[in-house]
Amino acid sequence: MVIKNTAFSLMLAHVFWVHCSGQSDYSKIPPKEQKYMEHVENLLQGRAKLSLERAVNGIIENNKHVCWTSTFIKYSWPEYTHTVQFIDRTKKGADRKQKRYANWSVGLKNGIPSVLVNAQDPQVYGDYTLYFARPTCFVMGNETAQAPSNGNVSSEVYADRATCQLWFRRRVDWDDKEECMAAFFRECNSINGVYYKYRRGVCNSVNSN
Questions:
Q1: Which InterPro entries would you find in this protein's record (predicted)?
Q2: What is the pLDDT of residue 103?
Q3: Which end is more exposed in the chain, N or C (fewer Cβ atoms within 10 Å of the end residue's Cβ)?
C-alpha cells in the first residue's frame, strides 16, 4: 500500500508540474536562461548517453548509488523517456546493476528554469532548479530536497537537505566541461553533505561485467 501511495503521489506531482510548466511563457525569462533550457532539451533527446559526473547528496544516497547514466528512448511532449541505470553498492552480483525508466521534462516552475525527473521509484524522482547549461553538460539542484506536495512519500527518501548534480554528455566538449565544472562548484560548493565523482575506471569495469 505504501508503494502504491508513493507512486500515485509522484504521478499527481508530475501532472501538476507538467501543467504548470506548459502554461509558462519563456519570453519572460532572460535569453541566457532560455538558452540553458534549450541546451538541456537537446541533450535529453540526443543519442549520446548522459552520465552523472559530480553530485552532492540526493540520488547518490551517501555514495551507495553510483555510476549513474541516462539514455534517451523516445519523446512524447513534453517528456523525454530515458533508461536510467546505476550501481547499487549495497547489493552483490548481478543485483548491483539497477535500471529504471524515467521521464525528463524541462520547463518553468514559478518562473524559474526547472528540470523534472519523473520516475515511480522515489529514489530516482527529482524536481530540480536548472542552474547552468552548455551544449554538452548541465548543472541542476535544489537548496532543499523535499518530497512532492501531494501524498505519502517517505521522509527518509526526501531528507531536508540541499542537493546538486552535474551531468555530462558522452564526449563532452572541453570548454563546456570547464564551464560546467566551474558552475557546479559555484552553485554547490557551500552544500554540506556527501560529494560524488564519476570514476570511469570503476564504472566501466562494473558495466562491462
A1: Calycin (IPR012674)
A2: 98
A3: N
